Amino acid sequence: MTFLAGEPGAWRLDGDGFTVEQLRIPAPQLHIRETSVYLFSAGRERLMVDCAPADDPSWPALEAELDARGLAPADIGTIVVTHAHPDHYGNAHRFQAAGARVVLHRRDLDFHRVRNGDRAGYRERTFAWLGSQGVPQDEGHAWLAARMEKMSSRPLNPDVLLDGGEIIPVGPLRLRVEWTPGHTPGHVIIHEDAHRLLLLGDHILPTASPNIGIDQDNPGNPLPNYLASLRGFVERADLVALPGHGHVFDLVARSRQILEHQEERGRRVLRAVEAGARTAYEVRPFAWDDATWEGLSRGLRVNAIRTLAAHLGRLAELGLVVREERAGLEAWRAADGGTGDELVEPGEVDAAEHD
Ligand SMILES: [Zn+2]
């Protein structure tokens, strides 16, 4: 049985010698309210993709879902973690202690260690980076204090590191790992080609737009490749889209919608620079009005500036803005003769963002 977009309940596939089940786990502590774990069973073999936040009520809910199937943590052989955010790996250590092996992309282990190994250093680098984007010091301090408070220090010590392209067998199924940097540097999605299943983590979500932005600890701009990945999915009406949060959804329509959302944001950023905004911080009022901005938590404002920096970088790649380094400030000006025609027409815009 497959649930269509918007339908309540959890998706499930009963195949020949295997089952795949979506376990929808409540997570009221998250902005997005719930998270999904995918349980693959074949004979005595069991593999999970993601494992829910460690805090209440998510962990007891996951335990209850397993218990309802006659399972305990010790019955899970493998946990594949789509990315190193605590709403996806939170309980990895619990399953590991019961004997599971934990699988993660190597870039997300680095990402995790850089943030959690030396939190004071991470805070300092992020504060300096926010300054380079024009964020005033008092605001930068307040945002970071909120951000660091929310940042988890849950343990994450994977047993197997991925590069992308691996095949992970479970019973008769073959899970193919695709590296999709963007939401995090080592984010992966999982394909099961025989049944056209696609486990998306936070790469594409049905009800929120995943945060894609510049990270001072990771070189490069993930936005162009992320948009290219979405364009690839606009052609894939055949795939069953299984998100890290929420219901099964229409991959084609949703990919198109997020593309339009991002293109509209790019257009606003370009208009801002043309109107004289010089830094990501100065671009902000053109991307989010004051009421929306005031409603955004302080911690999420760090992500918002990361997103704007990614858009500015992309506009520079398209030749529409020019970067100017000015005394530690990353500043921008409009390029001569740009029209913005490279950016498609705006569509529906999401209110919700997910970090
Ligand atoms: Zn998530």
Mind sketching the topology for me?
Blueprint: E1 12-15, E2 18-26, E3 34-42, E4 45-49, H1 58-68, E5 78-80, H2 86-89, H3 92-97, E6 101-105, H4 106-116, H5 119-132, H6 137-150, E7 160-162, E8 167-170, E9 173-179, E10 188-192, E11 197-201, E12 209-210, H7 223-233, E13 240-243, H8 251-274, H9 280-287, H10 290-295, H11 298-317, E14 321-326, E15 329-334, E16 353-354
Helix pairs in contact: 5-6, 6-11, 7-8, 8-9, 8-11, 9-11
The protein binds zinc ion.
Can you give a write-up of this model?
- The protein has 355 residues and is α/β, with parallel strands linked by helices.
- It has one domain (1-355): Ribonuclease Z/Hydroxyacylglutathione hydrolase-like (Metallo-beta-lactamase, Chain A).
- Helices cover 36% and strands 22% of the residues.
- It has helices at 58-68, 86-89, 92-97, 106-116, 119-132, 137-150, 223-233, 251-274, 280-287, 290-295, 298-317; strands at residues 12-15, 18-26, 34-42, 45-49, 78-80, 101-105, 160-162, 167-170, 173-179, 188-192, 197-201, 209-210, 240-243, 321-326, 329-334, 353-354.
- Strands 1-2-3-4-5-6-7 form a 7-stranded mixed beta sheet. Strands 8-9-10-11-13 form a 5-stranded mixed beta sheet, with no helix packed on it.
- It starts with 11 loop residues before the first strand and ends with a strand.
- Bound molecules: zinc ion (ZN).
